[in-house]
Amino acid sequence: MIYPRVQWAVFIRRPNRFIADCKADGEMLRCHVNNTGRCRELLVSGHRVVLAAAANPGRQTAWDLIAVQKGGLLINIDSQAPNKVVWEFFPQIVGPCTLVRPEYRLGDSRFDFYAEKGRNRVLAEVKGVTLEDRGTVYFPDAPTVRGLKHVTELTELAGHGYECWVILLVQMEKATHFEPNDRTMPAFGMALNAAVRAGVHVVAYTCRTAPDRLALGTPLPVVFHSYS
């Protein structure tokens, strides 16, 4: 995926979870933050950030904060980007499909993707990963009832004939492996273990990052914890 117009800025503050104040060329810019996660280790005053021009020029906030420079890593934090990347590279992750449909509703639930591979019906959920510590990447960075619900639903549906996937899209280029963030939400890690035992495919991929684009990178090992 490509952002048509971007610029570098310096992060100043985050008055609330949707808004950030940044400075570019001496001008203070109020930006939209399209990520409701905490991002505390990223959105630090003085960090260099990337802003993308809003698609709607008449919007109150003319820029979106889409990425943060953390040391040698450029980390994309746009929560809409992972689904766009997976949509573009879906066959490379899941395999050749005869049909791929985003935003698929099944009963009272909505999944990121529905696909068909021959006779197999495929359901996939995508989780964007932005939390990194010394090479290890984690999800979630804040408790997520919605994320837990999706994993437990896929676990159940795997027992009803669906081929189910949890795709962890790591929004940076370099990491050693992925682990569930038990310090923040051990229930998610437990649910991920149960999903794997039920036959759900749990995979992680890095991304090739640049200020104006994001693309699928390479597979990343997933480490599953033991729970008593």
Description:
This protein is an alpha+beta fold. The chain is 18% helix and 46% strand. It has 3 helices and 15 strands. The chain has helices at 81-94, 145-158, 186-197; strands at residues 6-16, 19-24, 27-33, 48-53, 63-70, 73-76, 99-106, 109-117, 120-129, 131-133, 136-139, 163-170, 177-180, 201-210, 213-220. The strands form 3 sheets. It has a 6-stranded mixed β-sheet with strand order 7-8-9-12-14-15. It has a 5-stranded mixed beta barrel with strand order 1-2-3-5-4. It is globular.
Which tags fit this structure?
alpha+beta, about 230 residues, 15 strands, globular, single chain, five-stranded mixed β-barrel
In short:
The chain has 228 residues and is of the alpha+beta class. Helices cover 18% and strands 46% of the residues.
Shape: globular
Helical proportion? 10-25%
Mean pLDDT: 95
- Radius of gyration (Å): 18 Å
Separation, N- and C-terminal Cα atoms: 41 Å
In terms of quaternary structure, the protein is single chain
**Separate helix tally:** 3
Share of residues in strands: over 45%
What order do the helices and strands come in, and which of them pair?
Elements: E1 6-16, E2 19-24, E3 27-33, E4 48-53, E5 63-70, E6 73-76, H1 81-94, E7 99-106, E8 109-117, E9 120-129, E10 131-133, E11 136-139, H2 145-158, E12 163-170, E13 177-180, H3 186-197, E14 201-210, E15 213-220
Parallel strand pairs: 3-5, 9-12, 11-13, 12-14
Antiparallel strand pairs: 1-2, 1-4, 2-3, 4-5, 5-6, 7-8, 8-9, 10-11, 14-15
Helix pairs in contact: 2-3
